[in-house]
Amino acid sequence: QVQLVESGGGLVQPGGSLRLSCAASGIIFSFNVMGWYRQAPGKEREYVARITSGGSTHYADSVKGRFTISRDNAKNTVHLQMNSLKPEDTAVYYCNTLPARYPWGQGTQVTVSS
């Protein structure tokens, strides 16, 4: 049974930072491209960033230069370091493979507000 468990969200002021984590179980983690996605209120879920098994990364234009994705294949975890956060980054953040093949986890809420 595949489980994706996100954590690390919270309330932060504009310009602040957060580090999200995702623990994956039930998949051969090291074989998969892993991605972070987000869904803001009233909007569809969107792609944020991805990382290949070898560590190659790609980012959506909206987060490029501010967010950094990383992974630890030994621990089946993927992280998203988010710096210089903006109010428009407010959303529920999810991880999944890319393309998304597994049931979505509960996500972790990120709220950027003063």
Structure in a nutshell:
The chain has 114 residues and is mainly beta.
Note the topology.
Blueprint: E1 3-7, E2 10-12, E3 18-25, E4 34-39, E5 46-51, E6 57-59, E7 67-72, E8 77-82, E9 91-97, E10 108-112
Brief descriptors of the model:
six-stranded mixed sheet, 114 residues, mainly beta
Q: How would you sum up this structure, described in words?
A:
The mean pLDDT is 96. It contains no helices and ten strands. Helix content is 0%, strand content 48%. The protein has a six-stranded mixed beta sheet, with no helix packed on it. A four-stranded antiparallel beta sheet has the order 1-3-8-7, with no helix packed on it. The relative contact order is 0.32. With 114 residues, the protein is an all-beta fold.
